[in-house]
Amino acid sequence: MGGTTGTYSLRCPAYIGGGLEPRTGYQPPSGLPHSAKASGAVGGSFPRPPPQRNGEMLRITAKVLEEMFDHCKEEREKTGNEACGYLAGKNGLITRAFQIPNDAQSPTFYEMNSGGQLKCQKEIRLEGLEHLANYHSHVATQAYPSKRDIDNATQTQEYFDGYYVVVTLENSMPQAKAFIIRDGSVLQEEDLIPE
After folding, report:
1. What is the pLDDT along the chain (195 residues), one digit of tens a residue?
2. Backbone Cα Rg of the chain
3. 1, part of any domain
């Protein structure tokens, strides 16, 4: 599947070429059926619990939250389309936003540009940061993952187990919420409030 050029939807992530390999050896916690398979997940794997966050909520600096909002508003004003990117930091605190082109060029869904993803992954590694979240905007709907968003997150959960941030632009003031999505379900929802 794929290479490191061209465009990939989240179903064919650039992570494959970016040095991140699927997790192996996962054993489902007791109480989960061993025959359970993740609906549509890459390779059909056992359902996995959400990542351990030591009871901490995802946090973001005010500067980075504003940068993300500005990117989303600018993309809507220039093209009418959804914006997307990565959020990175350490210990659950987002300190960097990385803009990635939306190859779908659509107001209702996004496909992160594979070259943009690889570039951002390299920068994140070089800066010693963690890739904490993917973000994208909804230009005219609420800050909640669409069915397509949930399906895409499920299909890439073997490669990325962080948060999914949705920015809504449906009102005059943008708002952001962070979600943990696993095995076709939204398991956790948090307001993303600046520190």
Report:
1. 333 333 222 333 333 333 333 333 333 333 333 333 333 333 333 344 445 455 568 999 999 999 999 999 999 999 999 999 999 999 999 999 999 999 999 999 999 999 999 999 999 999 999 999 999 999 999 999 999 999 999 999 999 989 999 999 999 999 999 999 999 999 999 998 898
2. 16
3. no
What are the b/e assignments for 12-44, b being 16+ CB within 10 Å?
bbbbbbbeeeeeeeeeeeeeeeeeeebeebbee
179's tokens: 């979600």
Q: For the domain that residue 18 is a member of, what is the CATH number?
A: 3.40.140.10
Q: Does residue 164 lie in a domain region?
A: yes
Indicate the pTM of the whole model: 0.74
Domain count, the chain: 1
Residue 6 lies in a domain: no
Domain span at 77: 14-191
